[in-house]
Structures are given as structure tokens and as C-alpha cells.
What we know:
This protein has helices at about 5-25, 45-60, 95-100, 175-185, 195-200, 220-230, 260-270; strands at about 65-70, 70-75, 85-90, 105-110, 125-130, 135-140, 145, 150, 165, 170-175, 185-190, 205-215, 235, 250-255, 280. It is an alpha+beta fold and about 280 residues long. The chain folds into two domains: about 5-150, Fructose-1,6-Bisphosphatase, subunit A, domain 1 (Fructose-1,6-Bisphosphatase, Chain A, domain 1, 2-Layer Sandwich), CATH 3.30.540; about 160-280, D-Maltodextrin-Binding Protein, domain 2, CATH 3.40.190.80. The strands form three sheets. It has an eight-stranded mixed sheet with strand order 2-1-3-4-5-6-7-8, with helices on both faces. Helix 1 (about 5-25) packs antiparallel against helix 2 (about 45-60) and helix 5 (about 195-200) packs parallel to helix 6 (about 220-230). The N and C termini lie far apart (about 55 Å).
Amino acid sequence: xxxxxxxxxxxxxxxxxxxxxxxxxxxxxxxxxxxxxxxxxxxxxxxxxxxxxxxxxxxxxxxxxxxxxxxxxxxxxxxxxxxxxxxxxxxxxxxxxxxxxxxxxxxxxxxxxxxxxxxxxxxxxxxxxxxxxxxxxxxxxxxxxxxxxxxxxxxxxxxxxxxxxxxxxxxxxxxxxxxxxxxxxxxxxxxxxxxxxxxxxxxxxxxxxxxxxxxxxxxxxxxxxxxxxxxxxxxxxxxxxxxxxxxxxxxxxxxxxxxxxxxxxxxxxxxxxxxxxxxxxxx
Length: 283
């Protein structure tokens, strides 16, 4: 087993530890819970997952690592200087998961220690479904895979043939975005960014739009590498590269597409320019 496969095998084992923790524990054991670093209400399964993650990184992960997650300040595991920065969202789609709704997922990104935390620096990534035994993973320059099958994102370039996911909760859809959604073949809003982005990578969806400026990096860093390795593109709302993370409370907007041609069409239709408020606005 080469070093890349070793790392990816451990990321998958970490995902399985999270699944076991959130599907076998119960809320009764955790009592009163507070808020995380982003100000969101902590749920029992967040803490159950975090406990499982800490145990795995301390006892089984093969390299010293610094963990960044919404559950608290950066934490280091293993002996010696950290070799990796791990950005983790153990339960994305937590509103879905708390109601027993799919999808919900886990996302992990590994970045060499000392490098900026950004989509451009992610070396290894994994996304796993919390409801289905389904795993997407990627290594930079070596491709993306789902359950052992090489991924290629959709070749669809016509908006009229595209199935698009769009998150608009807490915002008002303005005419430019409404027109894009009206022209699409179909529109979804699944409520779990990590799984949606993995679905763009595997060809199940053609695009994902979230223009609210509310996404945090743990949702998209890992999926971003998987998308790129599958042939897709992930950018900010003006087609720009996503800037490096300064804090897990930093917020982003995304335009994600299965290919560059469709991405260009989305940008053209949305006609987003700096300071434009015509696409989406908070009420």
C-alpha cells in the first residue's frame, strides 16, 4: 500500500468511526448543550462524532495532525510536529440528520502543515454519506473515486439539460437567479452541501449554487478537490478562486459546475459583478 492509499484508507476508517458514533449513541447521554464557534446550536451527534474523531486521531491515525473543526479551537494529535492540517465537518446537513432526513454527510480535507488552508492546497479528500454506505475520495493529481469507480463529472453544457442544486434558505431569490433556475431542467435543494458537491463530481448533478455568503470552508474544501479531480470547477460568485481560510467562521458563496462550459454559462446568466445585489439578498 503506497502512502496515498494509506492516508485515504485512514480517512475512510475515520468516517466509519463517525458513522458508528452518530448512529449508536443517543441524545439522552449528553444533557444540555451550548453553541459552537459559528454560533450554531451544538447537537448531541456533533459531540458524539467529535469524541470519535479525537479518539481515532489520537490512537490510530498514522501522522501527527492539527484538527480544524467547528467544535472548537485547533487541536493537535499524535507525537511530534504536525504533518497535516485536517479540516473536518463530521455531520454536514445536521438539520436533515436531526429529523431523520437524507442526505447528510461527513467531509474531510487534508492539507500539508504550514500551507494556507484553501481548495488549492488540499492533497487528500473524502466525503461519506451518513445514510448510505457511499464514499467519495480523491488525491491531488491522482483522480477521484466513488466506491472504487473512477469519477467523471457530467459533460452536459446546456442549462436546459442541467439538474441544479440551489440553497436559498434565509434569503430572497432575485430575478437573475430565478431566471437561471427556471431555465434548468430541474432544481433541487438537498440541504447538505458536502453530499451535493460530491454529486456534482459523480455526475448526479450538473451544478450547485449557493450565493448567500453563508457557507463555511469545512463544507467545501474536501468536496472541492473531488470535484476538480473529476473534471468540474468550483469558484466564488464572480468566477474567482476561493481565498484561503483565515477562520472557520469565514463565509463564502459558491458557483460549482460539472464542467467549465456550463460554469461560464451560469456566470453569464447570473451576470454577477462586484457589489451587485440583484442575484440574491437576505430579507
